[in-house]
Amino acid sequence: MGSRATAPLLLFLGLLFIFVKISEKRATLPGPSFCLGIGPLISYGRFLWMGIGSASNYYNEKYGEIVRVWIHGEETLILSRSSAVNHVMKKGHYISRFGNKRALQCIGMNENGIIFNNNPSIWKQTRPYFAKALTGPGLRRTLAVSVESTRNHLEKLLGGHNTTSTCVDILLFLRAITLDISNRLFLRVPLHEGEIVSKIQKYFDTWQTLLLKPDIFFKFKWIYKKHEKAAQDLQDVVEELLLKKQQELQEAEKLHDITDFATDLIFAQTHGKLTADNVRQCVLEILIAGPDTMSVSIFFMLMLIAQHPEVEKKIVEEIQAVTGEREVQNSDLQQLKTVESFINESMRYQPVVDFTMRKALKDDVIDGYPVKKGTNIILNLGRMHKVEFFLKPNEFNLENFAQNVPHRYFQPFGCGPRSCVGKYIAMVMMKGILVTMLKRYRVHSHNGSTLENIKNNNDLSYHPNESHSRLRMIFTPRNQAAA
Ligand code: HEM
Ligand SMILES: *[C@@H]1O[C@H](CO)[C@@H](O)[C@H](O)[C@H]1NC(C)=O
Ligand SMILES: *[C@@H]1O[C@H](CO)[C@@H](O)[C@H](O)[C@H]1NC(C)=O
Ligand SMILES: *[C@@H]1O[C@H](CO)[C@@H](O)[C@H](O)[C@H]1NC(C)=O
Ligand SMILES: *[C@@H]1O[C@H](CO)[C@@H](O)[C@H](O)[C@H]1NC(C)=O
């Protein structure tokens, strides 16, 4: 009796086992076919031609939320499903990025600094200096510094015209503010804002242009000479600033009561813990992080405010209710819930940092798909925020953050060991800058431009193409607007 029942059961289990084994093997990754090497050629070409962000969106749209393509002949996964994205962000063996080594050498990032440092042991030495500067006492000073810097810049630009509307070269303006805030927090040396802002722009363009280029590109020195110079120019400026800082430190009778990022690095260098090249690169990177990401993010936010008067009204009412006539301070941040939802929804709907690049340092299985050591990985965060969880994914709507959003579905800064080390400070800076501006001015777009009709590029990050024309916005004093 017993054996008659077990035989079919064993047979069934055996078949199930075989079936599971087969379907495990069948879990080949979706994506374009290899096709005698033409597949890899086409997909690499697409990345070079369309830009990284656009190409990633193209492939996810065509093949689904997990895709395998090739960049420079290397297998590359593009992930926009939250389970896969969170898996990669949390595991410890995806803490490297990828990019052409010659390109990274050209911009000083190869095995130096933090952002594209692909040597895990050197990266582990530098990251703590960033983490220290971007949390704790540094974080607590950030709001006051952001408010003061924004106020000064507004006064310098608009002080004389506080009765009428003024047209502002908005990206230049926001870059100057974010650079000034970073300098006051991390370096504290007088600098020429306009000059450095323009050099940061050129440095970023070089980074974006070179990052995925084939090796052969670097054989033609005359082609990339201008890029090499752009990168060198910014490195030279930072070198000079660091020399000034060193002199100041030597002349100071005793150490200032507050230390800063640059001081900590200079000491690390004198104690032989970091090389001079690494110190210079770290300072360069902390100075460019704000102007590269925050300025465009805030520009998008101001455009969204200009296009959504009902949202503007809610935000301004909250700011008024919480801060009244005085400036915003740390104890207010908890209460500025609408401002925070607005910032979140802006970063979701119109992100600047659209994706992040990682590398698998070990074999692994992601959502059932085998992934070999050395595979490049693109986490397509911008798309993830539009295909999962949110009620009105393709609309700018504060309702998307009306209920609590579980962490895994909203990751504008990433999470885990290689996440944005500036994620807390970035939120505080954005709040400080936005609140200080919106308290005083109404913003309008200029010449009918909207987020939908300005030309954008989506390569290394999503940002307006500024070669068409300078972007402007109109600032009108609030007291005047109300009158
Ligand atoms: C709106 C503003 C910002 C956004 C949306 C943003 C987003 C991101 C993202 C998505 C990453 C990659 C994370 C990953 O691979 O998982 C990143 C990395 C990084 N961010 Fe931010 N960021 C912002 C502002 C800042 C600021 C203000 C700083 C510093 C002052 C900063 C410093 C960094 C650094 C140093 C890294 C590289 C970390 C590493 O490789 O270990 N970011 N950021
Ligand atoms: C304009 O600004 C100046 C200085 O910033 C101030 O003294 C003056 O009262 C302001 N005028 C108006 C109408 O707000
Ligand atoms: C905004 O997003 C962050 C995650 O980046 C989250 O911790 C926070 O709760 C969100 N705020 C609101 C008001 O939804
Ligand atoms: C405003 O837009 C029109 C048409 O789109 C364009 O011809 C003109 O140059 C723009 N003016 C400015 C100042 O950008
Ligand atoms: C920006 O637009 C110009 C003119 O349409 C184009 O030539 C240029 O390649 C664009 N810039 C980038 C980085 O795509």
Q: Please estimate the helix content.
A: 55-70%
Contiguous low-pLDDT stretches (5 residues minimum) are none
Question: What structural class results from the helix and strand content?
Answer: alpha+beta
CATH superfamily: Cytochrome P450
Largest sheet: 4 strands, mixed
Number of strands: 11
Tell me which oligomeric state these chains represent. single chain
Indicate the CATH topology. Cytochrome p450
Overall mean confidence score, pLDDT: 92
SSE string: HHHEEHHHHEHHHHHHHEEEEHHEEEEH
CATH architecture: Orthogonal Bundle
Q: What ligand species are in this complex?
A: protoporphyrin IX containing FE, 2-acetamido-2-deoxy-beta-D-glucopyranose
Organism: Scyliorhinus torazame (Cloudy catshark)
Keywords: Coiled coil, Heme, Iron, Membrane, Metal-binding, Monooxygenase, Oxidoreductase, Signal
Coiled coil: 224-258
EC number: 1.14.14.14
3D architecture notes:
The protein is of the alpha+beta class. The chain has a single domain, classed as Orthogonal Bundle (Cytochrome p450). It has 17 helices and 11 strands. It has a 4-stranded mixed β-sheet. It has a 3-stranded antiparallel β-sheet with strand order 3-11-8. A two-stranded antiparallel sheet has the order 5-6. A hairpin with a 2-residue loop joins strand 1 and strand 2. Helix 9 crosses helix 10 and helix 12 crosses helix 16. Bound molecules: protoporphyrin IX containing FE and 2-acetamido-2-deoxy-beta-D-glucopyranose (4 copies).
